[in-house]
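Feature request disguised as a bug: please show the residue count (134) next to Biopolymer transport protein exbD2 in the output. Example input:
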Amino acid sequence: MARKRIREAETAEIDITPMMDIVFIMLIFFIVTTSFVKEAGIDVNKPEAAQAQKKPSATIFIAIRANGEIWMDKRTVDVERVSANIERLRAESPTDTIIIQADKEAKHGIVMEVMDQIKAADPSLVISVAGETK
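Example output, currently without the count:
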């Protein structure tokens, strides 16, 4: 009778180790393949464009306010530091396109200085200026 009780106690158990291995592998896969977008951090009142076209997606956004403030990665940046910040952001997530979101009241000279700093960081970068579509 003692032998019968021992055999009943040795019932089959479900081993969830292989399932947990698969879940962790899928989690690592999704973390590695996710791309993160570095937004400027502010909303800009962009001018409207009648002939706007869709541009390729970018991971670096630069916003220029009407008062001349330049925003990158959710903080203000001086014009002289734009190229250094672009190099840092490109090291984190490589991209060939940078989008400038300039307020419609922003001065043209500041936008041109930012574009010069982008080209100083890497002349092969594609610069897109974002506007509202009608």
